[in-house]
Structures are given as structure tokens and as C-alpha cells.
Amino acid sequence: MMSPIKCSHAVAEALAEHRPVVALESTIVTHGMPWPQNLEVARRVEATVRDNGAVPATIAVIEGTLYVGLEDVQLEALAQSKKVAKLSRADMAVCMARGGTGATTVAATMIAAQLAGIEVFATGGIGGVHRGAETTFDISADLQELAETRVTVVAAGAKAILDLPKTLERLETLGVPVMAYGQDQLPAFWSREAGLRAPLRADSPAEIAAAHRMRARLGLPGGQLIANPIPAEAEIPRETLAPIIAEATRDAETHGIAGKDLTPYLLQRIYELSGGRSLEANIALVLNNARLAAGIAQELSALAA
Ligand code: PSU
Ligand code: MN
């Protein structure tokens, strides 16, 4: 059977030589940030991975093919397009079978990374349990994916628009290790602290790589969530954000926004209500995550498989 993925030359070569590779998602580009900053950020994230000794593999579905490692022209076309689907585990195969084009969420990117043999992935924030999930049942497929797919995901915690205590509970039930990096507190995306203790803590890329491999030796499926706090100079304090998130959440309710549209809507609304500040913080934290992920990828490639 032919492999459904197509690795770029740089990614294929690095994987064949067991050199460090970091997977990157594309939904953050198409649905998470406005044009033209999205393209600029996508390029800077790739450059940061390279500067830190790893090969970036941005993942997306383009005309039915699941690309692992995009050429710059492909990245630019995606960033500019307004009618790209947002693909998760449920719809990626359908989109590919139809020859469609779509950006991959954390869940879909993890599936592609595992298929390609990439063990670590950098993003901004993962999806999680939405506020009001007790009535809406809105829980991101990213959580289930972390339980099933063996990829270590570096994020700045779960987005503060979510119900963070419920998200942690769900991850615990699913058996997903959640490690705060370099601190005891769980980070909350735009802020360094969520006001919650993280279940686990890691202080070096080597520790994270060793734990990743130990899970495999135990025969455990699933990945790890590394919650890397945003750099102090870029953070927005929790108190500043709380009323903005509350207003954005109310607006979403008023306009009946639900399902796949909710996360992109909230991010855009918070961008407007914060006068662009949320985007600056988002950029800083993604770059920070790319650096850490490259360090983990180096440690993984130094360890025997
Ligand atoms: N983090 C961001 N911007 C984003 C996302 C995360 O800073 O756009 C995307 C990721 O692709 C994540 C998705 O997997 O939002 C979660 O969407 P949902 O809540 O619909 O599962
Ligand atoms: Mn959802």
C-alpha cells in the first residue's frame, strides 16, 4: 500500500539519518492568526527550529496529499487562503480522499508526525475542555489524541479560554503526562501561571526525551504534554486577560458560535479586545516552544531508538 504522506526532501533526509526533526501544525497559521502575521510567524517558527539544530516539518493536507514539511510557496498559499478546512482526526481522511485542502490541528498533526516517524511537535496551545462543557460536551479531540498517539507535544499549556481544571482532569483520566517546564505551576498560554499546580514538572530536554522513550518501552500508547511557560517579558497577566476572555466567551454565546468555529472565533475576538496584544504574546510563546521542542528532538536523536 502506498504511504499517504509525502515528506519534503529535507525532512526525509533528516529522518533517514536519525537527525532531529520537529513537527509543526498548520491550523495555527490558517485559523489561529491573521494574515500577514501568520505567514511571517510560520517562517520564523521554522527558522527557530533550524537555528536550534533541528529540521522543521510543517504539516498540512494540500489537494489530497498529506505533506510533512512544506515548501515555502505551499506555506504562503495556505496562509493566504480563506477557504482552508480545519482538520482533526475525524475529518482528515475524508478531506484527503476527496482531494481537498486543509490545515491540521494538534490531533491531526500528531497522527501525521507519528506516521512519518517524528516524535516531537511544537505548537502554541492545545485544545481542551471548553467552559460550559458540562452542557455543550465540547472537548477537543486533541486530548484523546494525546492518549493514543506517541508524540511529545510542546505547548504553552492549554489556552486560557478553556476550563483548565477540567482539562487537567480529563488528561489525567486519559493517562497523559502533563509536565510544566521549569516551574511547578501550570502555565496558561498568554500567562505564565494558571493558578493550578501542574501534575508533573520537567527541567531539561533530556528528562523529557528519556520519559518519552520509557513510555514506549512500557508499551504505553500516547504522548506527553509539555507545558512551557511564555517568556516573562511577553506575558499578559491573568488579571488583565480574565475580563477579555469573559467578554469574548459571552460574544460567542450571543452569536451562537459552537463546534470547530469556537476556538478560532475566541482567538480572533481576544485579539481585537486586547488591541493586538494577545497576538504578540502568542508569537513569543510559539517561538519559545519551537526552541524547546528542537532541544528535545536533539536529545531524542542522541538516545538509541
Ligand atoms: N493554539 C493556537 N491557535 C490555534 C490552535 C491552537 O494558539 O489556532 C488550534 C490548534 O490547531 C488546536 C485547535 O489543535 O486550535 C483546537 O481546536 P478545537 O478546540 O476545535 O479542537
Ligand atoms: Mn471543539
UniProtKB/TrEMBL annotation:
Q: What class of enzyme is it?
A: lyase
Q: Which domain of life is it from?
A: Bacteria
Tell me a GO cellular component.
cytoplasm
One GO-annotated biological process of the protein: nucleobase catabolic process
Q: How is the cofactor bound, as the UniProt entry phrases it?
A: Binds 1 Mn(2+) ion per subunit.
Binding of substrate, residues: K86, V106, S140, A141, D142
Cofactor(s) for this protein? Answer: Mn(2+)
User: Any idea of its EC number?
Assistant: 4.2.1.70
User: Which residue spans adopt a coiled-coil conformation according to this UniProt entry?
Assistant: none
Q: What does it do?
A: Catalyzes the reversible cleavage of pseudouridine 5'-phosphate (PsiMP) to ribose 5-phosphate and uracil. Functions biologically in the cleavage direction, as part of a pseudouridine degradation pathway.
Protein name according to UniProt: Pseudouridine-5'-phosphate glycosidase
> Which organism's genome codes for this protein?
Mameliella alba
